Amino acid sequence: MFITLTPNQVHFRYGKNQWQYSFDEIAELGILRKKKTYFLVNTMFILVTGVAYYCMIFSDIIDIYYIIPTLLCYTFLIILRFNDRTEFEYSVLVRDIYEKEITIKIKNQDRNLIGKQIDQYLNLQFDRMIQKTA
């Protein structure tokens, strides 16, 4: 369980990290989605292309000596790029009233369960606010 609710506190636990807040201390709670960047793979692709063009235009190397390594490098880079099918990285954001922010990266398969638990917490918080005003 990511969130454990007690009558006056909220306990968070994910992996080795665990912390707790009282209900009134949490200002914001949600799941953030960040698109993965492939800066290293894109840079390597540009570098391999540049070396291939240099060999093609400015050197007297026979075509087979630079085309085959270039194709092998492209194959390796494409495998690196498309090996992992997850397009986004997810994390949980907990911000308290003291402007302290905790962000924990979560696994993609845990996202739905944690999202449901956050919804339960938000519904409970809404009910508590209604009871205070009523």
Characteristics of this structure?
134 residues; alpha+beta; PH-domain like; 3-stranded antiparallel beta sheet; 6 strands; rod-shaped
**Largest sheet features:** 3 strands, antiparallel
Number of strands: 6
Per DSSP, what share of the residues sits in E-state strands of 2 or more residues? Answer: 25-35%
Multimer state:
single chain
CATH class of the largest domain: Mainly Beta
The SS-based structural class is alpha+beta
CATH-wise, what's the superfamily of the largest domain? Pleckstrin-homology domain (PH domain)/Phosphotyrosine-binding domain (PTB)
Put simply, the count of helices is 3
The gross shape turns out to be rod-shaped
Q: In which range does the helix fraction lie? A: 40-55%
Mean pLDDT: 88
What is the succession of H and E elements?
EEEEHHEEH
Low-confidence region ranges: none
What is the total domain count?
2
